[in-house]
């Protein structure tokens, strides 16, 4: 089962945002970053989650344990209920992408355990705003 870590970084809230994804499989370790545009911090996390699933699908990951430091995303995915309609477009895209996986679990991790994804997101944001 692949392990996927993701995080977003935002300068301002809302502000310029970047995301980072780390996919670890038995065969490889993939690190990718992306510019997310001008988003608030929660939207940036959702956008990075979508990006993580798209990357995993592209790399033929079928089973994944996804780690996030967003309690909002973990709670939404585990309850299968979206409490804030602001994130509906992201949630619907995540649900659509999730059908590409045989197994998909989302687990909350404190930021200190998601350091590498956070580091890459911060570095990508720095490159966008320097």
Automatic annotation (TrEMBL):
Q: Which CDD domains match?
A: RNase_HI_like
* Official protein name in the record: Ribonuclease HI family protein
Q: Which PROSITE patterns match?
A: RNASE_H_1
> Short name of one Pfam family for this protein?
RVT_3
Q: Which domain of life is it from?
A: Bacteria
InterPro entries xref list: RNaseH-like_sf, RNaseH_domain, RNaseH_sf
Q: Domain RNase H type-1: where?
A: 1-126
């Amino acid at each position: 089962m692949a392990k996927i870590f993701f995080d977003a970084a935002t300068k301002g809230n809302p502000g310029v945002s970047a995301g980072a994804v780390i996919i670890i499989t038995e065969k490889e370790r993939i690190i990718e970053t992306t510019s997310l545009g001008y988003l608030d911090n929660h939207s940036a996390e959702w956008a990075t989650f979508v990006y993580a699933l798209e990357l995993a699908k592209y790399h033929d990951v079928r089973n994944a344990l996804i780690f996030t430091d967003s309690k909002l995303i973990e709670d939404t995915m585990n309850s299968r209920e979206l409490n804030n309609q602001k994130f509906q477009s992201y949630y619907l895209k995540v649900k659509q992408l999730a059908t590409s996986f045989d197994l998909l679990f989302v687990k909350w991790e404190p930021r200190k355990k998601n350091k590498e994804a956070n580091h890459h997101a911060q570095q990508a944001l720095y490159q966008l705003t320097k």
